[in-house]
Amino acid sequence: MIGSKSTFFAQDSEILKIYRRQVISILEIKDYDTEEINVYLKAFDYFCLNCNEFDGATVVKDLQDLPKLDIDAMLHDYQYLVQNVASTFYTKWYSDWLYAKGQERKGKGQYSSFSRFIGLTIIGLFFVPYASYKRGEISMNQEKEFFNDYNTLMK
User: Fold this and answer.
1) Is the separation of the CB atoms in 149 and 76 below 8 Å?
2) Alpha-carbon span 41 to 45, nearest angstrom
3) Residues 81, 53: contact at Cβ < 8 Å?
4) pTM of the model
5) Contact 32/80 with Cβ under 8 angstroms?
6) CA 79, CA 42: separation in Å to the nearest integer?
7) pLDDT tens sequence across 34-81
8) What are the CA-CA distances from residue 133 to residues 56, 82, 88, 142 (Å)?
9) For the chain, domain boundaries
10) Which residues have C-beta within 8 Å of that of residue 131, sequence separation ≥ 6?
């Protein structure tokens, strides 16, 4: 997103392996099951291989789970970039809702979680047409993968 940059995934692969284990530990502590954790690890592993694509939490950087990493922002970036959810209002809304619910589930507060959701919804009025033009429409496979992940995390 505009105004955001992160070098978290540009770190040495051995350090990223340690952080990957820490992501698992954090999610286990927050009572995520293996299937739910794997949704986050898919995003983590993607950004390990494509470190320049991760831009981190945009604007607000105060809710990090690890130094310089908000794992919900990471998953949200993955959904926007790989699953192309920002190209339609429908899938973007679900992605942004999942982001807010993930923040809430990790104990980051309802106010900050849902104020971000409202902000993302407003920004979507301009961002969705841009994303659709820039990245094209979401494919059936991307939408199916996203909603499989969504249903896994919202069960």
Assistant:
1) no
2) 6
3) yes
4) 0.88
5) no
6) 11
7) 999 999 999 999 999 999 898 876 555 567 889 889 999 999 999 999
8) 23, 15, 11, 17
9) 8-154
10) 80, 84, 86, 87, 92
